[in-house]
Predict the structure.
Amino acid sequence: MRFGVFFVLKTVLMALSQIWANKTRSFLTALGIIVGVASVTAVIAALTGLKAKVLAEFESVGAARLYVFPNRPDNVPRSKIPWEKCRLSIEEARAIMEQCPSLKGVSPIVDVSMSVESDTELIEAMTVSGIWPAWHDAVGRKVLRGRPFSQIDTETARQVALVNEAAVEELKLDRDGNGGVGEHVLLGGRRFLVIGVVETLQARMMGMNSSQAEVFVPFSVAEKMLTGWYFMQFVALAKSPEVAEEAKAEIEYVMRRQRGLTRSDPDTFRVAAIDQYINQFKSLAAGVTAIAGGIVGISLLVGGIGIMNIMLVSVSERTREIGLRKAVGATSTAILLQFLLEAVTLTVLGGMVGLVVGKALALGLTFIPGANLEQADVPIWAVAVSLVFSAGVGVAFGMFPAIKASRLDPIEALRHE
Amino acid sequence: MEEPIIKLRAIAKVYRVGVETIHALRGVDLSIGRNEMVAIMGKSGSGKSTLMNTLGCLDRPTSGEYWLGGRLVSAMKADELALVRNEEIGFVFQTFELLARQTALENVELPLLYSATGGGASARRKRALEALERVGLGGRVDHRPNQLSGGQKQRVAIARAILNNPRILMADEPTGNLDSATTAEILGLFSALHRAGQTVILVTHENDVAAHCQRVVRLFDGRILSDLPAEQDDEVAPHVPAARAMGAAA
């Protein structure tokens, strides 16, 4: 073996001494690589952190949960499928409840906007949601105090309400130390007994609500108060995350039959499972990664051109040295490898510095309040990819100068001034 | 008689510079035996540099045959020639050609970097140290070139040249950049190496330097003008202008 470990080691050592001897020049040359690797490292760290956070949030939401929304199919004129045909109805919820064996439960959620009043406070327009008792299981929210809705509440349309802790606070319901249970609120002018308090959802994703306060009433009660426009969706819980896909198919089948859609008709509703959101997020993250990758590609290209430039300078400065090396027996291949290794040493060193800078940036990101990046970290694979890329840039852009060096005629080279 | 180490047969070298054709060597026949010490002399343009490059396997002749140690090197490819240079030829240059950032020892080790048979790091170091001892620089192994005098630099270069025990030690104006006292030292070193069995070829234009050799080959206009033992060459030297006239007529 002609170019063994010794050759590589010796060459890298020589390259390092060359880099050290021209510290400023080497640093400026490697700056492009450093910036490129640092930025990609920081972006990957940020995405990793965001992903960990979002996935954990999805996880807590539960993978067995399904939502049904009204949805006008794309590419169909508004006149052909009016909103009324897409809107969900309570009969559909009943059909789903009765006909889907993979479901543990289903509940409609109908949002009605109305004024909410306690003894001391008044909120003019607040969303009040009408739900079935199955809602507690389906969304995984138990009552903290008091009792949940019962079937009787729904069937007899009792004027009872559930509130969350934020609503207790905003409406100042906790006056006599019972945490709000047993108080009365006026919803759209009607008097409701607060029978229970549920937990406030922590910062919902994608900023879907501004006020944290929530009020719930039995669906049968909300139904009577519906005036004009309202929005209804269903939430369903599959028996286990494993059968979520089957549950989804069952709901789709029931819905299509319920609506009398023929084979050629498009869906006028949409069933969304949590993993769909996960996939959506993942493709979003992949898109951001691709864009970041493109930017990094450009900075690595610029960095690479810098490397090529400096290596060409190095070859011409060291022409006599190349002549001498050839005179003492270096083959063209040996010279080629030597200059290539030198370029790679420079870029990999730049890549390492870039990684350190990127790691520092990632650490800085974790301290940005409210950015959801507390878990930002540089994964091992990103370290490997960065170093491989740096080395690749060294090979790609060091090749031309190295070939130039290897082709020098030893006699001419030794005569070079 | 013993087979000569170097055998040149009708070596010619033609360069093309633009439209001009330059005949640097016009048919050189030369044999050099083992443990000879030969000076190659000639004015600039006489072809001595081309002859040295050819002998040193840095350049291939346009025509003719060059046998080195029984192998026809004039037919070899570039990589084979690199190997021959590495193992069988040691070069010493007028300007030393040491790597500025490497120590004396590292400079001497350089040929081993390109050798297939260099051995491990400690073996390499040992060989380089031995070579430095042989040129009398055992105490300066860790000095860099800028910490060495001209004579010491040339000793390092000579140590590098003899490291692989080459068949030929080839020096191109090795004393051109040295003062007279150091020149004497370095020539003494070449003579000592010669006495120890080394074949030495010195390329020079100084008669004093040539006087240290056994044999003097004079070139003129790409041909060998004279090839005489040193003692007889002394008689020829003063008559070079006449010889040149003779060569031009031929």
Notes: The beta strands of chain B are 6-17, 20-32, 37-41, 63-68, 71-72, 89-92, 168-172, 199-204, 215-220, 223-229. The CA atoms of residues 112 and 118 of chain B lie 5 Å apart.
